[in-house]
Design a protein that fits this description.
By secondary structure, this protein is mainly β. Helices cover about 5% and strands about 35% of the residues. The two termini are about 60 Å apart.
Length: about 300
């Protein structure tokens, strides 16, 4: 440890050499000393061994500014190229803005921790990590994150036995969607135009061939089937539209395949039609129709 006043006094050769050596020792040790230096200069470096901090004298030469502890990497200052950990609250006094990281869903942190925040450029939303999952925040609740829609413009039919169900799990009328977060919602909407030979027909919203919980009737069913919608053509030439509107929790981030299934009230096998009437006579009094299904992911 050494300090020097920065002045080489006149003296004998030995005394001058000693004075020079003391000055060099002070320079090479950054004026290391416990407590304040005796002689100070503006912009002078000083290692204060009492607290282990590197300090620099201010321009007015009336105080030292602490740079940081010499025993800590980068003097404890934030790195511009490496990850930093702050153990104290940080306050930004700017009145404009700060910029947080932005990236795609695939670029999310490989080892996320609670409290992380970022902007997701894939979903165009701000998101944070909590409870083991990423979720939207900052006013994004209720925002439509994605829309998947499929429309069937051709006809389809099935000879459906009594008490059986025609599960139309076909890509031509199926919406496949994966939620960005398990807490988000699915809004499922759509209509199916059905023709039958005077039968009542019911529809069921399904996910990959299984009835969709929360989208079908419940209660005391006994022999009755849980269904989403239904109608009765009342005529052998009849055609009618079955409407579907339901909001469900995503529940997970797996792929879901939403589609329709149908059953009738006939006592035997009967043909059910999509997008046409039972007779489908080639006449200006007959129509061909469309059926569709749309699924929206809504931020929680």
């Amino acid at each position: 440890m050494a300090e020097h006043d920065g002045v080489i006094d006149n003296g004998t050769g030995s005394a001058v050499r000693t004075d020079l050596n003391n000055a060099l020792a002070a320079i090479f040790s950054n004026n290391s000393k416990s407590g304040a230096l005796t002689t100070n200069y503006a912009y002078q470096w000083h290692v204060d061994t009492s607290d282990g901090n590197l300090k620099i004298r201010n321009a007015a030469n009336n105080a030292y500014v602490t740079v940081g502890p010499v025993a800590t990497t980068n003097f404890g200052l934030a790195s511009l190229t490496a990850a930093n950990t702050f153990t104290q609250r940080q306050t930004f006094s700017a009145n404009t803005s700060i910029t947080i990281p932005t990236g795609t869903t695939a670029q999310r942190d490989g080892s996320p921790a609670v409290g992380m925040i970022r902007h997701n450029s894939t979903l165009n939303q701000f998101e944070g990590y909590n409870d083991g999952a990423w979720g939207a925040f900052g006013g994004s609740a209720g925002k439509i994150l994605q829309v998947v829609s499929t429309t069937l413009t051709t006809v389809a039919s099935n000879s459906t036995a009594a008490d059986a169900t025609w599960s139309f799990n076909d890509s031509s009328l199926k919406a496949t969607i994966t939620a960005a977060n398990s807490s988000n919602k699915f809004l499922i909407m759509g209509s199916a135009v059905v023709g039958s030979n005077g039968l009542a027909v019911s529809s069921i919203l399904q996910d990959g061939g299984s009835n969709l919980t929360g989208a079908v009737g419940s209660g005391t069913l006994s022999n009755r089937k849980a269904a989403t919608s239904g109608d009765d053509s009342g005529s052998t030439e009849g055609v009618f539209t079955l409407s579907h509107n339901v909001v469900l929790s995503a529940g997970d981030t797996n792929a879901h395949n939403f589609h329709y299934a149908f059953f009738h009230n006939g006592g035997g096998t009967s043909t059910l039609y999509l997008n046409r009437s039972n007779s489908d006579t080639d006449s200006t009094r007959r129509g061909r129709y469309i059926s569709n299904i749309t699924v929206m992911e809504i931020a929680a």
